[in-house]
Amino acid sequence: MKLSIWAWGGIVLSFGVFGLSAWLGFFQPGGISASEGAGDGGQPPDLKRPALQPKLAEELSGLPQARATSNESESSHRLFVSRTLLFIPNEEEQVQPMDPAFVTGDGIQVGWKIQHGFDPADPEVAGRDDDNDGFSNAEEFEKKTNPRDLASTPAKWVKLRFLSAEPASLSLEFPGKWTQEQEAQADRFTLRLRDTRIRSGKREKAFDIDVSTGDRLWVAATGKNVKIFRSEEEARQDPGIGTALHLIPIQIKSYQPNLGKRPDPVTQLEVAFDDSTLSGERLDGLRQAFVLSVDGKDARGQTLSRGVTWDVSDYRLISLVPGEGEMGPFRAGQTFSYSGKEFLFFEGKKDRAILKLLPENEELQVFPKTP
């Protein structure tokens, strides 16, 4: 088949282009000439790359490198190889971890919140009670208990608050020997008690009982009268006493006679006196010794305390634990159980109560509930 002149021309042109390309590729490799480098004396610019990480540097080492050799002329043909320049920072950015000991605005440490699954930035955490045990998360943080476990709670007595007081006092006096047929017997005496709530006319009513040294009595101030019993069993069987009212156990210890005559400080005449004393001990939680004097005067006529006065006010507390509420009444010297512990109601005041945790004898002050 005879080819046209146009076909022969295309064949010749194709072989010529192929040959030129092969010659340029295999016989005249070159790089970027000095005149084409940017800037300083025809030298390539100094690209200050940060140090590469070892693994990445190893991967990049296999890429083709374009460089100009000293024996190559500027007229040499050049082969351009495209490369991606990777700029890697010298040091990794440091992420500062949140300090677990940092205390947020609600008074709770960040670490404690994270430990128990709370958002450290949540402002509502402190006031919530997530396990519904009556204690806020802030209270559980303070006592180091688990705020998500109903069985892990602070001591319930920290929820006690002072509610009210009904003031009253009981006084003990020693009028002297028993004034009936047994008067001559030195071991028979009269013990007199007065409850400030009980009045006869304009004066407090007195309740007398005869006692001997060694006697043990149980005294109950009911607000209507003062009852004195010879045994606790007898007192508890009384309908007006029951098991709720606090009984004050007393033991008569000794009698110390002191009778005679001395000059009256006003008239200077000899007068008889009786400064005999009767001593005893209160045996409830207060464990107080007492001494009662007959006349209550010393040899110079100075007035002495004739007896002792005890607080028999009714104090009431209230528990803020859900499901509980008002507690009492309690009286000074009374022991009671609460939350698996024994407490002594040690002292009451107008604005607070003082308890003692037994047997540790740790003092706890109970203040009124704040609004």
Q: Which secondary structure elements does this structure contain, and how are they paired or packed?
A:
Layout: H1 5-27, H2 54-60, H3 110-115, H4 137-143, E1 160-166, E2 169-177, E3 189-200, E4 203-211, E5 216-221, E6 226-229, H5 232-236, E7 248-256, E8 259-263, E9 270-274, E10 277-282, E11 289-293, E12 308-311, E13 314-319, E14 326-330, E15 334-338, E16 341-348, E17 353-358, E18 362-366
Antiparallel strand pairs: 1-13, 2-3, 2-12, 3-4, 5-6, 5-7, 7-10, 8-9, 10-11, 13-14, 15-16, 16-17, 17-18
Description:
- With 371 residues, the chain is of the alpha+beta class.
- Among the domains are: 110-154, no CATH class; 169-311, no CATH class; 313-366, no CATH class.
- 13% of the residues lie in helices and 31% in strands.
- The chain has five helices and 18 strands.
- The strands form five sheets. Strands 6-5-7-10-11 form a five-stranded antiparallel beta sheet.
- The model is unreliable at 31-52 and 65-73 (pLDDT under 50).
Question: Summary?
Answer:
13% of the residues lie in helices and 31% in strands. The chain is α+β, with helices and mostly antiparallel strands and 371 residues long.
Features:
371 residues, alpha+beta, five-stranded antiparallel sheet, four-stranded antiparallel sheet, 5 helices, 18 strands
